[in-house]
Amino acid sequence: MSEPLRIAIAGLGTVGRGVVKGLQQDAALLQARAGRPLQLVAVSARDKHKDRGIALPADIVWCEDATQLLEQPIDLLVELIGGAHGIAKTLVEGALAKGIDVVTANKALIAKHGLQLAQLAEAHHTDLRFDAAVAGGIPIIDVMQHGVAANRFERICGILNGTCNYILSHMQSRGIAFDEALAQAQAQGFAETDPSTDIDGMDTAHKLAILTSLAFGTQPALESVQLRGIRSIDALDIKAASDLGFRIKLLGVAQPLPDGRILQRVEPCLLPKDAPLARIIGAFNAVQLEGHALGRLLLEGQGAGELPTASSVLSDILQIARGSQTEVFTVPAAELQPLAPATADAMQCRHYIRLSVRDEAGVLAAIAGVFAKHTISVESLIQREHQPDAPTSIVIITHECSAAAVQDALSAIAALPIVTHPPQHLPIQE
Amino acid sequence: MSEPLRIAIAGLGTVGRGVVKGLQQDAALLQARAGRPLQLVAVSARDKHKDRGIALPADIVWCEDATQLLEQPIDLLVELIGGAHGIAKTLVEGALAKGIDVVTANKALIAKHGLQLAQLAEAHHTDLRFDAAVAGGIPIIDVMQHGVAANRFERICGILNGTCNYILSHMQSRGIAFDEALAQAQAQGFAETDPSTDIDGMDTAHKLAILTSLAFGTQPALESVQLRGIRSIDALDIKAASDLGFRIKLLGVAQPLPDGRILQRVEPCLLPKDAPLARIIGAFNAVQLEGHALGRLLLEGQGAGELPTASSVLSDILQIARGSQTEVFTVPAAELQPLAPATADAMQCRHYIRLSVRDEAGVLAAIAGVFAKHTISVESLIQREHQPDAPTSIVIITHECSAAAVQDALSAIAALPIVTHPPQHLPIQE
Fold first, then answer.
1. CB B158 within 8 A of CB B299
2. Which residues of B, range 323-352, sit inside 8 Å of A by Cβ?
3. Mean pLDDT, range B31-52, rounded to an integer
4. CA distances from A237 to A199, A272, A415 (A)
5. What is the pLDDT of residues B274-292, one digit of tens each?
6. Is A302's CB within 8 Å of B294's CB?
7. Chain A residues whose beta carbon lies within 8 Å of the beta carbon of residue B151
8. Taking the model in full, what pTM does it have?
9. Contact B256, B230 (CB under 8 A)
């Protein structure tokens, strides 16, 4: 195993630059830990002359067309182009089929095509690793596949999107509105110009689908993730939740139900403010694993960025250099079961509800009547202080009930003439 | 790789029982993740007839003498006897020399004899894994060897002893004295009848010596760990620290200095109460890794107990079953450098100091004079409320200075006639 591992990198954006820096600056350390040299032999990116702050060796092969990388004498392809389709998919499939191992940070690709890629990797005895696809520098994939692999997993719960956590943290700490927090995140480089993939939850859903597969031995099932983003979160919600001892976080949660179905959901949730995940602020990510033997394990770290993501890519490269012996999704692809999806209705939990109503006599009675009719038991009901001539907020915490029951009740309440705005409701994660 | 992995377990205490349960109850899951069956073929423990709440199969080989396990047809020995010398060492050495892989939870053995055992394992192409030796269910060894292996580590900082954290947490939350918190920990099963290994810090030192070796590529150097336990922590310290916005934790900290020396220290420290490690309460453990690429990664979980520790043992077994390709201390034993130890004097930090003095005129002037003479700059000085006829507490936070300077100053202060009790001093961990 002292032959160099010959590496090609497709994509020299932020993460690619970090990977090149690591290979250059830490060559001796990486060689010692890998047991062999790591040798960058070819790269591909759109503009050869762009200044990326890295100096590529003169003898490196530069490919305008990324697929040309597969014609080079390489052992490993690092795919950092991104996207579930197109060139990234073509390239990864081509590499695996040619006996070239692959490391990728491409969450969409793995979430959507992970099963087929795992089958392809097995058929050609190649390896496919993707720790950088989920939670940046947090080695969550590796931990699930190795360090705590002996567990029956009971639940995974994560803050997997730094943009959303930055926005929600700033709404909390500064008392500002969603739009203002988003604008600040964009100004700070924590949100894209088009932030929809992040704030509408799809980024978290990609990551959750991958974790679900690893945890429960199921085929990745992105399409069955129950998805809701954070656009509807109002400063009033942050304030009301805070006053009641909660924080609002966008969580990705996967858990098996007693009937064998698996519930995957991405949605803003209330967490008791002392819960470990409630304490994760700013652009940090965190994952809480619950295993039958392990109990609760929390990992908290940088969820994105040049060096943290490169840390995961390079650590995957090290494992391949050593001769990784782990199946792509821990178990052989043929053993991955189709995921029987559950909907959020299958889960009973407390709910937070905020209603905007006119300040009139009889309002509470009308609302209470609707909840009673839908057999939703109310744990607490607080009429919030309000400005003159503005609608009153009523904040309700229910006892445990299903999201479907809450939605039915809220449909009925929304139709009442006293209600001025669409009701808000969020589950409480215990 | 579909041949069963034949396993012998030496020691059927708490952890051994958990490992047997796991092998029996999760056989199918473990086989799927290992790619081969895990087969328990032999065990050894002192009393064959003791009821351990587990049913061993009739055809299992029971060895009264643990060394007899090595005469069985086994691939892997799980050593759960404990202790740095005697039978545990003999057994592990014997196994490695016979080509039998080893998984152990024995921190003292690895901290004291890790280098020789790694050399032995390499010479015989056997594997030695010990994730359960540090922080119970937290897969910290595996994370350092795999998930974040591409990092230059800059500091490791951990709460590695659940007994001490339980005691300090209860002193904080209940305002009780050390002795009372220790008695409660003993009553709850969180402390041994003889708690000295835990509360005097040696248990943490063993674990830190192992982490230091993995992080910095050095030979384990238990003897150079600067060691101080928690017996001296008074309820007054907990209260004063809390009033100033700090928590007191027993930390194990390892960090390289600019001159290449490595400082390993185990001591009670003040942490700002919002620091991630300050929030770890009760018997939980946590490790904070700082890497040049990764930034800060925190892992928090169960540090002890039957199932959490068995989780780490079984996960190590899985890796060996798959064919682990990682050196014992990540790099070959011959590349591990002797550790050049630094003493705590090499580190500048703020210090907390508590003095018990008679409530007399001129006391502050006398104390301030001593600090000035030792060129220690005082950030804050608070004279605490006191009972009539009781000594007054003076609590001082210094600016950054060395522990040696503080000790010199305190020796001078202790000699003043106004001082009624030995001074307390603790570093502040930023």
1. no
2. 323-327, 330-332, 335
3. 94
4. 17, 14, 21
5. 999 999 999 899 999 999 9
6. yes
7. 311, 315
8. 0.96
9. no
Query: What's the gap in Å between the CA of A383 and the closest CA on chain B?
Result: 32
- Label residue A97 left, alpha or beta by phi (over 0 means left) and psi (-120 to 50 means alpha): alpha
Residue of chain A minimizing CA distance to B313: A150
pLDDT average, residue stretch B113-117: 98
Residue B359 pLDDT exceeds 90: no
Instruction: State the Cα–Cα distance between residues B301 and B25, nearest whole angstrom.
Output: 23
Does the interface predicted TM-score (ipTM) exceed 0.90?
yes
Q: A315, B29: Cβ pair inside 8 Å?
A: no
